[in-house]
Structures are given as C-alpha cells and as structure tokens.
Design brief:
By secondary structure, this protein is of the alpha/beta class. It has 2 domains: 2-126 and 307-326, Nucleotidyltransferase, domain 5; 138-304, ATPase, nucleotide binding domain (Nucleotidyltransferase, domain 5, 2-Layer Sandwich), CATH 3.30.420.40. The chain has helices at 36-39, 47-69, 88-105, 114-120, 170-180, 187-195, 220-231, 240-269, 284-295, 306-309, 314-326, and strands spanning 2-7, 13-21, 24-33, 78-84, 109-113, 138-143, 148-155, 158-164, 273-277, 300-303. The strands form 2 sheets. Strands 3-2-1-4-5 form a 5-stranded mixed sheet, with helices on both faces. Strands 8-7-6-9-10 form a 5-stranded mixed sheet, with helices on both faces. A hairpin with a 2-residue loop joins strand 2 (13-21) and strand 3. Helix 5 packs parallel to helix 7 (220-231) and helix 8 (240-269) packs parallel to helix 9 (284-295).
C-alpha cells in the first residue's frame, strides 16, 4: 500500500509518500516547504500569508514528492490529508488539494487528525522499515506551538485526554519569551541556543499546577513572570550573559513541568511506555529530561525523530498506512475541523 500525505495545518506545506507492506513502513519521500522566512518579520504566523504560500507550494511539492519516490499517481493506493485541528484557512487549502487530487485520480481520500499524527510519529522510526508496533496502551506527550497535552492511548482510535494546557501552549510561550528577549523566530530553537550559554538556576520562574494528580498545564503565568522580571531589569537585554541566564531559567521551568507531569501521569495510569512528539519535543533539554527518567526504569521512552517532531506529511501518510494495515477505521474527510479533538476531555 502506498499513501501520499498532505499536511497544511498551520504554516508548513508538506507532502510525503509512504509505502507499507509486511516488511514494515518505508518513507519514499518527505518534503516540507518552510514558511519561517515569510513569517519571521511578523514574529508569528500570519494566516493570509500562510494561505498564499500553501497555494504556491502544494503543486510543486506533490510533483517533487512523487518524483523522489520514483512513482506516479497510478501507483498510489490512497491520499491522506490533515483534517484538523489547525488554522481553518490553511486546512482548507490542503483539504481542497487532496479532494481535487482524489477526483482527478480516482483515489480514496482519508482524513487524519494532526494530533494523532504527532502522537504516533515515534512509532514511525526512521521511515526505512524500522517502525515499531504501536505499543498500546501508552502515554503520549504532544507538545508544540499550538498544543500541549497528555494522552492515554488505549488502542486505535481509542484515546483519552488526561490533561492539557488551559492557556498558552508551550511552543507559543517559547515564541513570546524569545520576542521579549530580542531573540529570533521561531522562539524554541533560539531560546535553546541562548540557554546553552546560561545558568538555568540563575532565576526562579513559577511552575503552575504543582499537585501530582493535576495533569493540566499553564504557561501564561510563566510568560507574565518573565515579562515583569524584564521590566524590573531595564536596559539589560544588551547583556548577552543576562539574556542567556533568563533563557536557561525559563527553559528549565518549562521542561521541569513537562517532565514532572509526564512522569506523574504515567505512574497514575500504570503506563510503562511513554512517547513524546511535537515541535517542542526537538528541545534537547526536554529530551534529556525524559531520557533521564527512562534511564531510572520509570518507563520505556520513545521519542519522535527530530524530522518527525515538527509539522510534516510523513506522519499523516504514516498513520494512514499503519491504521489501514491494522484494520482501524479511517474517516472520510467531508470537511475540515479546525477544533478537531483527539480525545474527549
């Protein structure tokens, strides 16, 4: 079975081709049209700009992905497209392109939940026949620019939301704090880069919901604390050491709460496998924190490869292929759903 995946949930245009057979899952091609340079002057994603870039990128990327895979559309078995959640205008472009391709080729079009793509991406391995069987049940930490949540995955299409952010997502706060510090966009890599030169215990920033049985996240108070701290230290943003210390201390606060709640949730639910994915899962400090807990025998840890952490179409096509192979239901995407849930609250 060969699937082509299309992902346009936010500002990345992505197309990938995946082949699944009895021997595993092979990633035949995976292309991402980054829009970072387009949005950098605004310090964040501008929906109108994203739509124009998706319209320009998708035809080019689809042709290139098929060419790199060495096949034509006649060799495909299905089209997988992100149905939601995400920016409505961006989702519409990918959905329309997928439906149009389906009409032109006669191929079935199936919708994939963007969050499910992230949740299962650690099982896709290198994309070269090394994927692992989804080890249900498991605990999933999905942490990105738009989402921060803990999910108990009990089986295909059987996901229970244990907790999520009540305000800003972790990646969103990285962007906002990076802007306060005069760093670049996107904020996650910039904060991490600055933090390498800083002292992570220089300043003590707050961590919300410290109770062990509370799996909610909140980063708005942390963001506000950093803003007030900077207002009380005017004129110091030109001091590289000061910026590095703030970045490192802020990063420590975010990582500490993510790791602590992940460990607590795994213990509370008796889950021995933990997976982590999403753009923020590229963060080295977070990966090290989770790896440290796994090394103590608290759980088996699977981290999505960095290339599959950020938004990509390989995870969309890969989930479609894995679910098809497992006989799990794949919905027909009659329409997009910008607020598509992965699991009930």
């Amino acid at each position: 079975m060969r699937w082509i995946g299309i992902e346009t949930s936010c500002d990345e245009s992505a197309v990938a081709v995946v082949e699944a057979d009895g021997g595993g899952l092979r990633l035949l091609s995976s292309l991402v049209g980054s829009q970072i340079a387009r949005h950098r002057p605004f310090g964040g994603v501008v929906p109108e700009v994203a739509v124009r870039e998706h319209l320009r990128n998708l035809p080019r990327l689809a042709a290139a992905a098929l060419r790199e895979a060495g096949i034509g559309t006649e060799a495909l078995d299905g089209i997988a497209v992100t149905q939601g959640p995400g920016l409505a205008t961006s989702l519409l472009i990918g959905h329309a392109y997928a439906r149009g391709l389906g009409l032109a080729t006669g191929l079935p079009v199936r919708g994939i939940n963007h969050l499910e793509g992230h949740l299962l991406s650690p099982f896709l391995g290198s994309g070269a026949g090394k994927e692992q069987e989804a080890a249900f049940p498991f605990l999933g930490l999905v942490v990105s620019g738009g989402h921060t949540l803990l999910v108990e995955a009990r089986g295909w299409n059987d996901y229970r939301r244990l907790g999520g952010t009540v305000d800003d997502a972790a990646g969103e706060v990285f962007d906002k704090v990076a802007r306060m510090l005069g760093l670049g966009y996107p904020g996650g890599p910039e904060i991490e880069k600055a933090a390498r030169e800083g002292n992570s215990v220089a300043y003590d920033f707050p961590q919300a919901f410290p109770e062990r049985a509370d799996f909610r996240f909140s980063f708005s108070g942390l963001k506000t604390s950093v803003r007030y701290f900077l207002e009380k230290n005017p004129g110091r943003l030109g001091d590289r050491a000061f910026v590095a210390d703030v970045a490192a201390s802020f990063q420590r606060a975010v990582v500490a709460v993510l790791v602590r709640k992940t460990v607590d949730a795994a213990r509370a639910r008796g889950l021995r496998t933990v997976v982590a994915a999403g753009g923020v899962a590229c963060n080295g400090a977070l990966r090290q924190g989770l790896e440290g807990k796994a090394a103590r025998g608290l759980f088996r840890l699977l981290l999505a490869p960095p290339a599959l952490c950020t938004d990509n179409a390989a995870m969309i096509a890969g989930v479609a292929a894995l679910k098809e192979r497992a006989g799990a239901a794949l919905p027909l995407p009659d329409d997009i759903d910008p607020n598509l849930p992965l699991a009930a609250a």
